[in-house]
Write a structure and sequence with these properties.
Elements (H helix, E strand, L loop, with lengths): L7 H8 L3 H8 L10 H13 L6 H8 L4 E6 L5 H16 L3 E6 L4 H13 L4 E4 L6 H10 L3 E4 L10 E4 L1 H14 L5 E6 L4 H16 L9 E4 L4 H12 L9 E4 L2 H13 L9 E5 L13 E4 L2 H16 L8 E4 L2 E3 L17
Parallel strand pairs: 1-2, 1-3, 3-4, 4-5, 5-11, 6-7, 6-8, 8-9, 9-10
Antiparallel strand pairs: 10-12
């Protein structure tokens, strides 16, 4: 049997005061109502004893805020998004907010369902990692005046609050590192999407080639879809690493999910890293610890991304900033053995 929810009326009857008085105290407005300290203390004690839980939706309708925010990421099981979610939860908590989580799984319909669900729960605002093709969803939020911030990725054609890594410079520096370490044919495997994070990473790759005197070769570039990406990554590597006609001598993987799948294939093929193939990953993974060669990877500043996303959303909720702001966060490269063939020309097989 479901236990009846404790109401303000229940507390009022227990204490012997009006429901309005209880409401003032539990909403921190006892001074405005001139409630005595002893009475306020008794009301709070009874509320605690009865395990009173406020109805956030009803409270939001009355006061205009529920102090909850909705967070929609691509995949909460991905360590990258899991860590972002954790930091955002802590940042919001410090500001008196509760975070509701959801994963879109890169699916347009699921993204829309999550947005609708969170808005029905009267959240004060949204932090969203948008999926491909969701421009109309984002524009609708903007047109309705709902506070939101895009995180990790966005759309070049829509001006909104967005917090992203400097994807272009991060990839540019990664490819430049490979070239500096003696690789002449660096390739890239990226997701096939119009979202800004991937577009900027591919642009950084191409600009690094150009600025280092290497002509871009379309055969070095493999695009894979989000759906069944493992199968497509494996297929791309079969082409790029064909032993009869090796297309590339090094690879940059545009995400950690692509990296993990690629390293499995590379290891199965017996390809030596970094002697036969240089490797750099965008983002890290715990799986890297089990690979025989330490992996060079681009480390995003998740703390700064999360803090800026929460702060930007709070400003939108409080209407302190109406002008959309794009915040770009720099990253660093953590160097391992996988990108440095020059130090590996000692003939030692590190498998």
């Amino acid at each position: 049997m479901i236990k009846k929810r404790v109401s303000l009326k229940d507390i009022a009857q227990k204490v012997g005061v009006s429901t309005a008085l209880v409401s003032y105290v539990l909403n921190g407005k006892e001074k405005e109502a001139r409630v005595g300290e002893a009475a306020a203390k008794k009301i709070r004690k009874v509320a605690a004893d009865l395990n009173y839980q406020p109805n956030l939706i009803a409270r939001g309708l009355k006061f205009g805020k529920t102090h909850t925010i909705g967070l929609i990421v691509a995949d909460i099981s991905n360590p990258f998004f899991a860590m972002l979610a954790r930091i955002i939860e802590l940042e919001a908590q410090q500001r008196g907010y509760t975070v509701l989580f959801g994963s879109s799984d890169e699916q347009l319909e699921k993204s829309q369902n999550l947005i609708s669900t969170f808005l029905n729960r009267q959240v004060d605002g949204l932090i969203i990692t948008p999926v491909a093709g969701s421009q109309s969803q984002i524009e609708e939020l903007r047109n309705k005046g709902i506070p939101f911030v895009l995180m990790d990725r966005g759309f070049h054609e829509i001006e909104t609050n967005v917090v992203v890594t400097d994807n272009h410079d991060a990839m540019y520096n990664a490819v430049k590192l490979l070239i500096r370490n003696g690789y002449k044919k660096p390739g890239i495997i990226a997701y096939d999407t119009t979202l800004t994070h991937m577009i900027d990473r591919v642009a950084g790759y191409k600009d690094a080639l150009k600025d280092n005197g290497i002509r871009f070769n379309s055969r070095w570039f493999a695009k894979v879809p989000y759906g069944n990406y493992k199968e497509h990554v494996t297929g791309a590597l079969e082409r790029l690493l064909d032993p009869r006609n090796r297309v590339v001598d090094s690879l940059v993987f545009a995400t950690n999910s692509i990296s993990v799948q690629s390293l499995k294939v590379i290891h199965a093929k017996g390809i030596r890293v970094p002697q036969d193939l240089g490797v750099i990953s965008f983002d890290e993974s715990d799986v890297f610890d089990f690979f025989y060669s330490s992996i060079t990877y681009i480390k995003q500043n998740l703390q700064a991304i999360s803090e800026n996303a929460v702060q930007s959303l709070m400003q939108s909720i409080d209407a302190r900033s109406k002008k959309p702001a794009k915040i770009t966060v720099p990253s660093i490269i953590i160097k391992g053995e996988s990108s440095n063939r020059r130090k590996s020309r000692d003939g030692v097989d590190r498998r």
